[in-house]
Amino acid sequence: MQRMENNTENSKQNNVFPFIPEGDFYFTKGVEAFQKRKFDISLKWLRKAIEATPKDPLYQCQMSIVYTEIGAFHAANQLLNQVLQTTGDKYTDCYYLLANNYAHLGLLNDAKKYAKSYLDKEPKGDFSEEAESLLYLIDIDEDDEEWELEEEDELLVYQETVFHHMENMEWEQALPLLEEMITLFPDHKLTKHDYTHALFFSGQQSDAIQMELDILEMEPNSLYSHTNLALFYYESNNEEYKKHIDGLLNVYPIHEHQKLRVAVSLARTNFYQEAYQRFRSLAKGIVKGHPSYYRWYSSTAYHVGKQEFANKLWEEGCKRHPKLSNEQKPWQV
Fold first, then answer.
1. Does residue 303 lie in a domain region?
2. In 3D, which of 99, 115, 101, 100 has the Cα closest to residue 73?
3. Are 177 and 161 in contact (CB under 8 A)?
4. Which InterPro entries does this chain map to (predicted)?
5. CATH code at 273?
6. pLDDT tens across 42-87, in order?
7. Which listed residue, of 145, 229, 257, 326, carries a Cα 20 to 30 Å from 31's Cα?
8. Do 204 and 319 share a structural domain?
């Protein structure tokens, strides 16, 4: 009798049906991992969701968003185009997501086309404000890049040299080069902002502030004026810096170098939590050539309680940019 009972129990155990999660289960796990910024884990779950339910466009859209976060813009666009093809334009948000990705890739004509397509189809959609802001930023960027081809080579030589001096905070070496650039390339707007920056930190604070204010009066939406003035006023113990920081908190530039400039400005004015989020969103492969990336990201990480990460980041920066080894760790200054 005992033996029969054991056999019956074993039979029950063998006949238990295994729990096979459906796509929604995997999708939920993927979203949870994404919200925790565990992007590799999120992608694994979302792949399982798509394998379980290949025709659900929502899963593919979410995967594209993860790809965008890690800088895999081409992979993101491939998924979004696939959704549009298979759903007959039902998922109009894809147009905005495509526009955003193309902007990050520097393909501004494509970005403009998809942003306009989104607004044509969803003039009051969830991303309508973002699409309009994107178009505005593209227009500004196109104005900044109107250069004759024969000027570009000479400009690049100057830019590379100035970049080296500015990133290593060698203001006295940068100033004469910037003065030459202003003479040779008077329409190149960034040069003037670099000049006021070098001027301020070489000891000519009042001249630098006045020059930047003059530029801002002519161009009230100048990102570089706001980043410079936020820093200049902060270093001068002038509460006016907060006004310019408030403006930066609502700006999300297209290009990584502009994003880095905002992140650094937030870090240098002690807006560490906000700066940390901006640094985390940067495509490291694009900005790792900037010593300022390591200098201020490590400082930011330290001040938000990520001391171990800060030290690792600083060590990595010193290996990539040996001149950093001559500096104190930025949170010790």
1. yes
2. 101
3. yes
4. TPR-like_helical_dom_sf
5. 1.25.40.10
6. 999 999 999 988 888 899 999 999 888 887 788 888 889 889 988 8
7. 257
8. yes
